[in-house]
Amino acid sequence: MHQELRNIAIIAHVDHGKTTLVDQILKQSGTFRENQEVEERVMDSGDLEKERGITISSKNTAINWKGTKVNIVDTPGHADFGGEVERILKMVNGVILLVDAAEGPLPQTKFVLRKSLSLGYKPIVVINKIDRGDARPDAVLDEIFDLFVMLDATNDQLDFPVLYAIARDGIAKTDLEDEGESLAPLMDKIVEHVPAPSQPIEKEFKMLVSSIDWNDYVGRIAVGRIEQGSVKLNQEVALIGGDGSSKMKGRATKLFTFDGLNRKPVEEAFAGDIVAIAGYDSVNIGDTLTAVSDMTPLEYVDLDKPTIAMYFRVNNSPFAGLEGKYVTSNMIKDRLMREVRTNVAMKVEQTESPDVFKVSGRGELQMAILIETMRREGFEFAVSRPEVLMQEMDGVLNEPVEEVIVDVHTDYSNKVIDNLQKRKGIMQGMSQEGENNRIEFRVPSRGLIGFRGEMLTETRGTGIMHQQFDGYEPFAGEIPGRSRGALIALEKGDVTGYALEGIQDRGQFFVEPGDPVYMGMVVGLNNRTDDMVVNVAKKKNLTNHRATQTADGVKISQAKKMSLEECIEFIANDELLEVTPQSLRIRKKFLDHNERKREEKKKTNA
After folding, report:
1. By residue range, what is the domain housing residue 532?
2. Are residues 216 and 263 located together in one domain of the fold?
3. Judgement on whether residues 177 and 226 belong to the same structural domain of the protein
4. Three-class secondary structure of residue 237 per DSSP
5. pTM of the entire structure?
6. 3-state secondary structure 351-419
7. What is the mean pLDDT of each run of 10 residues along the chain (606 residues)?
8. Is residue 67 situated within a structural domain?
9. Are residues 233 and 166 part of one domain?
10. Quick one: 281 and 425 in the same domain?
């Protein structure tokens, strides 16, 4: 018969130590050989996850602890990937809530805890990073308790067990004064506190598909928890869509459970276990795999709707096709459709133009991750400025609103508060920790586009911002856009130092000598509010050898180089971001200066 089981998810705000904790659990449970070399944060397998130090998609692993199999899911901590968290929580029977001993509960902590409590889970609270110089574990525990109360936790849920940890060193303890040697107290608490799966084994097989994976040899792989019954390798199983439609009947050609970081092929799996099944090419998240004798689907609750949209389009700039491998509308469309099969929080729609696709998601970071992934795969395209998705409720236009927390030095607090109030933000509270203020606001999502970059400039790079979708409220009115205009290239050519020296007092440039530019490309930020056309490719008429040396020795201010996220935040409504595997270029939608003027006149007269 099947062994004792526990299914648990680790939930927390971004960068509070989830993936590091899982690393240590895997090491201490004997998953790796003693002499096996294992990289840090081994669960973050994607290149972008490793570079950015964040978890983007959830990962499954399993360990054996004193005869009990523990399935562990490492979930994303960033708000933009909340769709992943919601799905994963349906697969488990308990959660570990991990909170930084210095930062305390943050917006995403609140979001994931609310979801967990609503599902009836009794969290195990782990206060991590107690070795930090600014750690305040007792005060953080009080904040966590207050958060439980605010989220209407039951008396049973309020009686949560607490452990203190240094995940990096693989230490957990039940008392702050204890010495602490390993994570054994945490693992024992999981087995003792988290209930075993209660899925009935005597009924017919059913499984809700919570995640999709891909393998070049077997195709699409459905991952989920078996809700009832058992399944055998090559058993005939029906696939039913989330809407109740019968999609196909087939055989479970491959059946895996999880063992450490690997999938382990098995002949049979039982109710309560988290498994992966291959053999169904059309499977999607929210579908039900079921025995053919009982074709009723399992209930699937739709996730929160996307709050932001960007338009992806074929690149039509003068440099189109020079750097990318995949450039046509069909290639871009196929790649976007592939994304939504595994990314439940995203939606792709065709527009009136066959070359433009509307992509909706949870936030700027989620969009930036998709854009960066596509450019690394060799795609070339252009994207528009993000726009928020309004909803009409009872005849009133409503817009998404976010909870924002900014940790900032007291010297810069007033600047941040003024900026958020200009963006229609309403202050909810402020508290002081040492020399820093923690400012809480509720701000329309529209008002946060471009805010992070301004906030970092205002705070000289020291401000830390956390945001979380918090519902819909009536439209708050117009919000001022970018305060400075663009410097726009007059003609196609290569940037010269001579040209930049002559006009560098006009603003800050994004280009440097030798960079190729084209007419209508945004090459800098104007000191004034309006746009200005400048000739950055102008050459000096050389008359002798000495003049050549003089032209080479000009002094030019350093060009501002923006990251992908900064470019997305920067672009205005009449601009596009050209994305290629090698370059990021900001450009006007209408490249010709006269055409832009005609469009402006049309808008003024409309």
Report:
1. 486-605
2. yes
3. no
4. strand
5. 0.74
6. CCCCCEEEEEECCHHHHHHHHHHHHHCCECEEEECCEECCEEECCEEEEEEEEEEEEEEHHHHHHHHHH
7. 77 74 80 42 40 45 86 62 63 89 81 84 93 90 92 92 91 87 91 87 87 74 87 89 80 85 84 87 83 84 76 94 92 90 80 94 82 92 93 89 88 91 91 84 88 81 79 87 87 91 89 93 92 89 53 70 87 93 94 88 76
8. yes
9. no
10. no
